[in-house]
């Protein structure tokens, strides 16, 4: 028995590896996607005031920070029973559009596109963002401009480009000024043109690599996403799950997610494996994110993105091909820019009624300790990688007693694992595998744009993290299991 290891998987957010086991004939007997890092934010939240959660959770990740901020804010709204005013909801959605423009452009141009522009077999020294800059400097500049526009939108609405702070219980802490609105409206309109040019470069690549689209990461799954009466909806709405034929299997409100989603632990990864509870594991495997959203919805309600969506559906129907995540991501990138323009052209976006307050004070800490009173709130938004669930339970004083976070990357975990295994079985025959073949296994993972810092929490409730403290002589003086 021989093992091939690809470590680390490159051009993703976080740390992971792929292992492939070969039998004595050189054929693949098994393969897995391993996530080795772990973060304890569910535990970090315990004992914190729930209103602090929207400021704590963005620190989970420097890429998905806005998504965590907003999902956390929605969960906190639900804990207190507060519905934000119209302007606050629009500001939050606009902040999320900034996140999409930033995140989708970053992933496609800098992480995913090198495989398509440079080619899967290109020298790894060139198959990266530096290679993109050398080969097509204008495309690289366009990508940088697009990403920067997303960051400027987030800054104007969220107060900071990274780890925004303005979403608070019951609404927003900061209104959008007329001057800010005018500036970022021009930015959003410019983004539409930049994205249109980028899609013009990208679309021929999907034809060029049609064989790779057919063969890499084969898996057939259910799909889940939020939707608004069939329309693409990224900030709000019930979650809908469809089967491979597009038929609805489930549709449920965020607070009811535990009736439909369950998580399983496997020994080769710190990342859990969510599945559809009523169908079972592994048959209840479902995928989320850009491809899932375009499969679930019936329409994309902005002009240019709608036209792109129509072409996509005419060509692929209910698409199972993993590499089409890249194509779907570009369609959503266009939608995010167009939706940002719509929001900014709405006069309500500069309104000053941006927060609703609690009518009655919470219990004191002392009274809460003597009471069985509990409050619970669940928030779900569509983060760029898929539905992001924040679920908090507090005592009567609003102190978090339990937190559960289920992120999109976890929901795609089983599909990534299956995709790697099936791709390896199809392509590897013999002990020697080329750099390009190894990269094709990485391409399966890369297509999902996994965010592993967000995705890993605690394993079976017990942390595998051990801190050893040694003295100056190197002798162990203390060991602590965190």
TrEMBL record:
Cofactor: Fe cation; Ni(2+)
Superkingdom to which the source organism belongs: Archaea
Key word Iron present: yes
Keywords from the named record: Iron, Magnesium, Metal-binding, Nickel, Oxidoreductase
SUPFAM superfamilies: HydB/Nqo4-like
Entry's Gene Ontology molecular function annotations: ferredoxin hydrogenase activity; hydrogen dehydrogenase activity; nickel cation binding
EC number: 1.12.1.2
Xref: Gene3D superfamilies: Cytochrome-c3 Hydrogenase, chain B
Similarity annotation: Belongs to the [NiFe]/[NiFeSe] hydrogenase large subunit family.
PANTHER family associated with the record: COENZYME F420 HYDROGENASE, SUBUNIT ALPHA, F420-NON-REDUCING HYDROGENASE VHU SUBUNIT A
Name recorded for this polypeptide: Hydrogen dehydrogenase
Organism: Methanobacterium paludis (strain DSM 25820 / JCM 18151 / SWAN1)
